[in-house]
């Protein structure tokens, strides 16, 4: 009589532990779309941070910190850094093209690499997120071969691997002028390597999901371009996803103004376009899609 009773207790304890683990794996994260499409809109970013702070989130990813029309000045970079630091949630910055690729000197000449170096110095000096709820990050700059690429970060939460990729809109900073694509070519090598490392990490740990954050949409060819700057990245993601057992979600910043619409799935590979508002994504590894778009609190400055 005692043995069946102990067996029943053991089953109940094991079931309780399994349910507890499942509950611990369920969480939500936020993505704030690029608030600086054409003009400075710091109030919109501030409102989105405040709105996401009011929610119970594992972390928040912010896409971009300035518009193409704003100055690429140290003062502006410092002011936006202070804004990110005041967030209550842990905040990870995913660079937008307007943060560095469009920067020019006073004489109109490009200042792309100079300003990208400055952005890296300001925002990516350590392995912690911004905000009050710090999360630990692994940066690509930890690899001796890719010391410059500190903006590419990776972290884990609830058995999901997350990573940022510096893929600027509209065409991954591919320049049509001959002989001027050294930055693009070097970053392409770094980006493909980083994607491979993310998938290797997820496979080794048998994780059920991967999320990639970027500015441009690497899963679609940009219209009216002579050369698709995302071609190799798209093929790399598709190839890796095809050999991965879990779900892969690519979140980019090229959505329409306002709330994100839906996650679009093709096999195990999904895409989510986030506009100038913010999106909340729920994570539940026990469900077939793992990821779901959830309702969010309103952003007061959204138009």
Overall description:
The structure is a single chain. With 303 residues, the protein is an alpha/beta fold. It has one domain: Metallo-dependent phosphatases (Purple Acid Phosphatase, chain A, domain 2, 4-Layer Sandwich). Helices cover 31% and strands 18% of the residues. It has helices spanning 2-25, 42-53, 74-85, 112-123, 182-204, 231-242, and strands at 27-32, 60-63, 91-94, 138-139, 153-157, 160-164, 209-214, 247-252, 264-266, 269-273, 278-283, 291-294. Strands 4-5-6-7-8-10-9 form a 7-stranded mixed beta sheet, covered by helices on one side. It has a 5-stranded mixed beta sheet with strand order 3-2-1-11-12. β9 (264-266) and β10 form a beta hairpin. α3 (74-85) runs parallel beside α4 and α5 (182-204) packs parallel to α6 (231-242). It starts with a helix and ends in a 9-residue tail after the last strand. Residues 1-23 have low confidence and may be disordered.
């Amino acid at each position: 009589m005692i043995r069946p009773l102990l067996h029943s207790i053991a089953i109940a304890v094991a079931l309780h532990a399994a349910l507890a683990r499942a509950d611990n794996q369920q969480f939500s994260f936020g993505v704030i779309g690029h608030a600086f499409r054409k003009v400075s809109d710091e109030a919109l970013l501030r409102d989105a941070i405040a709105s996401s702070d009011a929610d119970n989130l594992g972390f928040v990813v912010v896409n971009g910190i300035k518009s193409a029309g704003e100055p690429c000045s140290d003062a502006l970079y410092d002011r936006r850094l202070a804004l990110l630091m005041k967030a209550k949630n842990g905040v990870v910055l995913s660079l937008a093209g307007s943060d560095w690729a469009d920067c020019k000197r006073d004489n109109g000449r490009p200042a792309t690499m100079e300003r990208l170096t400055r952005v890296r110095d300001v925002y990516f000096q350590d392995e912690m997120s911004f905000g009050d709820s710090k999360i630990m990050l692994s940066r690509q700059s930890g690899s001796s071969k890719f010391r410059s690429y500190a903006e590419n970060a990776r972290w884990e939460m609830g058995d999901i691997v997350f990573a940022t990729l510096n893929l600027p809109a509209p065409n991954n900073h591919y320049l049509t002028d001959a002989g001027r694509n050294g930055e693009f070519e070097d970053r392409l090598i770094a980006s493909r390597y980083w994607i491979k490392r993310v998938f290797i990490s997820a496979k080794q740990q048998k994780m059920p999901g991967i999320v990639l954050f970027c500015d441009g949409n690497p899963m679609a060819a940009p219209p009216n371009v002579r050369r698709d700057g995302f071609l190799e990245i798209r093929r790399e993601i598709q190839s890796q996803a095809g050999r991965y057992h879990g779900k892969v979600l690519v979140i980019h910043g090229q959505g329409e103004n306002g709330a994100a619409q839906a996650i679009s799935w093709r096999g195990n590979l999904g895409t989510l376009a986030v506009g100038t508002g913010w999106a909340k994504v729920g994570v539940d590894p026990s469900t077939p899609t793992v990821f779901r778009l959830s309702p969010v609190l309103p952003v007061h400055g959204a138009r």
